[in-house]
């Protein structure tokens, strides 16, 4: 398979998808999401694959969300089914629907939509250098559905609200404490530890794993509907000056002025 934005490899029952756009801290554009979905489809169909690993190339980032350099009023450029210009919802759904465990190996920044990708994965192993956080309200975006409602299931509502309302960054140790990651390991041991977890999973019954995954998913499957509704609202939000102020402030490396959008309408 020929990919440009990701590196996809399969070895000894393990499929690895590495987002490969280090020049933008592994931010994703429409093509990146489509390539990831194709790789997941291949890993799903291939009966020899028992587990999928998602990671990022380079030393700095796992993924920093939507590529702000491919964004304009109305959303991201690129061909997509979604009005937003990114088929992120479809990526979240295939991570949940593939009947095999998906492990995020977080090697650096997991920010914005990149943070949501690791949240949706079944398990997360983090380098001690990893940094976690949501940035939407700081940069004119929000990731409703799995990024909000499902995050609240993982870390609890109070913590999820803090993550979204304050847009702070959290260390790997802080993330582990709040149940956001399964294990923190020295940076150079990240893939070794992740593949060790994969080996343990490969020793287990694939059918039992599939039923375990689907039965855990079933309890939060209503979030798919929240996601659809929320993403429709997001498409409208992206068409506003308020959202534009956010992503322009990021690109212009200046603080956003959202206070002006709190003025009373006369
Ligand atoms: C990750 C950071 C905290 C790092 O900060 P730092 O100060 O160390 O480095 P720089 O900010 O200078 O970044 C270095 C270099 O990388 C470029 N870059 C980083 N992230 C992105 C990005 N997402 N898009 C494009 N480019 C990026 C940066 O511009 C610099 O390049 P230079 O050329 O100037 O050297 C910090 O970078 C950071 O906070 N990044 C994230 C910014 C962001 O806005 N992310 C997206 C949020 S919205 C989103 O992710 C999103 C998710 C979804 O699931 C969606 C679903 C459906 C629709 C839309 C969605 C969506 O928008």
TrEMBL record:
Keyword ATP-binding included in the entry's annotation: no
- Note whether Lyase occurs among the keywords: yes
Q: Which domain of life is it from?
A: Bacteria
Q: Where is this site: Important for catalysis?
A: 76, 238
- List the GO cellular component terms: cytosol
Residues binding substrate are 64-68, 76, 109-113, 141, 238, 253
What this chain does, per the record? Converts o-succinylbenzoyl-CoA (OSB-CoA) to 1,4-dihydroxy-2-naphthoyl-CoA (DHNA-CoA).
Q: Which family is this sequence assigned to?
A: Belongs to the enoyl-CoA hydratase/isomerase family. MenB subfamily.
Provide the protein name. 1,4-dihydroxy-2-naphthoyl-CoA synthase
Task: Say which species the protein is native to.
Answer: Brevibacillus fluminis
Ranked from the top, the taxonomy reads:
Bacteria, Bacillati, Bacillota, Bacilli, Bacillales
Q: Which gene encodes it?
A: menB
